[in-house]
TrEMBL record:
It holds the Pfam family Asparaginase. This is L-asparagine amidohydrolase. GO terms for biological process: asparagine metabolic process. Keywords: Hydrolase, Signal. Residues 230-342 form the Asparaginase/glutaminase C-terminal domain. The active site is at residue 29.
Length: 345
């Protein structure tokens, strides 16, 4: 009995510790339904907010979720009346000190208009995040549930405060002022052609691009060192081998940046050679030969970093990761400190 009371007490404490996020549903493909999971001819706004929330039970682990239905229409039917109702309700919610953020589910056709309208009339620094989907809730590989999970992650992240109204879809974070729909059917439809996206979010892991330290806030100074340590870059490929890793180590490299495949993945022989290099005190940073994305997300983080102590270059390309690693090595050889440096600059 005592144990049950204890468990109840703990779960009440946990519920209070979690942020409270409202999901206001307006309709759209994200709430769309069809009889056939392969049909593009679905009805927008066929599913209610409770079902949308029930499809993503994991969001309850990161927030206290409260759902409300504002409308249930395709966003090509969006109008001023719904906007006014929505804006009024969002302001009311965010004025409540117990509310931490608002998510608005919306059709993608006019989501950019509603988001920009709210961006101009909401009076709060708390996160307001629009989210939609390109595939109906009943479709094969529906993109709505993961988009909602990512939207809740963004709305509950402290770094999302004060950024204005945001749109989260397809692992990307965009500002309402900049974002626009760019493709009729593709899940990668949203772009910000003038400014670009402001961040990325992958299974709830968030990275904003605008919070990296530099210049006056940089801890590095040319006063502190006479020369930069030797750091080499290697380029990964199939049927790769570890010879060049060994060569770098024999020739005095203090660090190696590997331009890995995909999210910084490695061919087995190179993985082995890099582990040996690390045992000899060489610091290993995983970047990617792929042009965009973070190596601090995706499988490499647990396949290599947690297992061996390699360091993800984050979104730095190999040539910039080399510069940061050289500077980091003028300060420290400690892996966790260098890992932190790669998340900071
Ligand atoms: N026509 C739909 C809507 O805007 C399209 C979508 O949601 O993707 O509601």
């Amino acid at each position: 009995m005592k144990k049950i009371f204890c468990l109840m007490f703990i779960s009440i404490l946990v519920a209070f510790a979690k942020p409270t996020v409202y999901i206001l549903a307006t309709g759209g493909t994200i709430a769309g339904g069809a009889d056939n999971e392969l049909s593009g001819a679905y009805k927008s706004g066929a599913i209610g907010v409770d079902k949308l929330i029930a499809a993503v039970p994991k969001i309850n682990e990161i927030a206290n979720i409260k759902g409300e239905q504002i409308s249930n229409i395709g966003s090509h039917h969006m109008n001023n009346d719904v906007w006014l109702k929505l804006a009024k309700r969002v302001n009311e919610i965010l004025n409540d000190e117990n509310a931490d953020g608002v998510i608005i589910t919306h059709g993608t056709d006019s989501i950019e208009e509603s988001a920009y309208f709210l961006n101009l009339v909401i009076k709060s620094n708390k996160p307001v995040v629009f989210v939609g989907a390109m595939r109906a809730a009943t479709s094969i590989s529906a993109d709505g549930p993961l988009n909602i999970y990512n939207a809740v992650s963004v709305a509950t992240n402290k770094k999302s405060f004060g950024k204005g109204v945001l749109l989260v879809m397809n692992d990307e974070i965009h500002k309402a002022r900049e974002v626009t729909k760019s493709n009729t059917t593709n899940v990668a439809t949203f772009t910000s052609p003038n400014s670009g996206k402001i961040g990325i979010v992958n299974y709830g892991k968030i990275e904003y691009f605008d919070d990296k330290l530099h210049t006056t806030n940089s801890e590095f100074s040319t006063e502190d060192f006479k020369e930069l340590p030797k750091v080499d870059i290697l380029y990964a490929h199939t049927t790769d081998n570890g010879d060049l890793v060994d060569f770098c180590v024999e020739n005095g490299a203090k660090g190696i940046v590997i331009a890995g495949m995909g999210s910084g993945s490695l061919y087995p022989s190179v993985e082995k050679a890099l582990v040996n290099a690390m045992k000899k005190g060489v610091v290993i940073v995983r970047s990617s030969r792929v042009a965009s994305g973070s190596t601090d997300m995706g499988p490499g983080v647990n396949l290599y970093d947690e297992k061996y102590g390699f360091i993800a270059a984050d979104t730095l390309n190999p040539q910039k990761a080399r510069i940061l690693l050289m500077l980091a090595l003028t300060k420290t050889n400690e892996i966790e400190k260098i890992r932190e440096i790669f998340r900071t600059y």
